[in-house]
Amino acid sequence: MSMLLSLPPGDYLRPGSYCVPPISPYLHDVATDVASWRRQLIWRVGMKRSIAVLGTGRMGSALARALLASDHRMTVWNRTKDKAEPLALLGATVASSALEAVTSAEVIIVNVSDYKATAGILRDDAVASAVRGKLIVDLTSGTPQGARDAAEWCGRHGAGYLDGAIMATPDFIGTDAGTILVSGQGQAFRDNEAVFRALGGNVQHVGQDPGRANALDSALLALMWGALFGALNAIAVSQAEDIDLGELSRQWTATAPVVEGLVTDLIKRTDAGRFASDEETLSSISIHHSAFQHLLELMDARGIDRAVVDGYGFFFQRAIAAGQLHGDFAALSQFMGKAA
Ligand code: NAP
After folding, report:
1. Separation of CA 51 and ligand 1 centre (Å)
2. Which of 81, 178, 202, 241 could form a disulfide with 172 if both were Cys (CB 3.0 to 4.6 A apart)?
């Protein structure tokens, strides 16, 4: 009880506060009751959170527009103020400083180029004091460790923290197909469902570890770049062989479901550790390796750069040297998890 009396008044009861350190079980219960009472109140009177968006570049502006469309009270701030001005026409208040924006809102959404820029904004002394009791949602792209460090910094400054990875271009924000992965404090995510719903139809909480969203982001980007660099190779081969790119595009559309099936199968088999060929194997390393030789021969004949595909060759060789030539293609995953 004496601990309760020594707390700064209102620190845990302030609307929008997600800072509930484990000081005493009693205090935790009080904070939980107040949070639950507040959730019911929001539901009954339809109150919406006041939100600040820091950073109104291409993505930040799309986020702000989606929130304005869902009637949230919005303040926006951008280092270059001109870029935030168009949002005033849609009903946003344009703040003159990050401090003014942070002070005005319960939920602070950050979307700038990288975490270094986020830190430059939030770690200013006055802003760092103003974040106490608020929820920071950083939707800036970054690394898992960067998100964990930011969560730790917010915890030390009395703020809640969620980290998000936006898996969409700005035109998808606010639409049913808008996907954002969010990780960190699950309760804070649930308490702000209306905010996240406004940003897209597929905004998911993917775990308590604040680094999880960025880790998934990097994994999915690795997959995407595999496909995009593969497409660049396909374009080079097509051009060298005088194949019309419209024809390439049509044949890719027809082949894409096969590739999607192979990727899903590869992930499933790796998860189950089923690396030896069996009756369900779709294709062995040996079959892929032999077709791969045709690609290399063609590329050499046409003088096409092999830098990307030589990387594939390296992993084929490692697997073959380890006696896995006749294994399922998924067996290659054993050679990529650790640098040689
Ligand atoms: P952008 O249009 O280039 O905007 C960058 C924003 O960051 C601007 O508001 C810029 O302010 C601000 N900024 C940069 N350095 C800053 C600093 N040191 N201090 C304060 N503000 C700073 O980029 P974007 O496309 O909106 O991307 C923003 C974030 O969203 C990135 O992390 C990106 O990876 C992520 N994202 C983007 C997409 C996409 O399709 N665009 C998709 C997924 C994720 P100024 O206007 O003053 O320069």
Report:
1. 18
2. 178
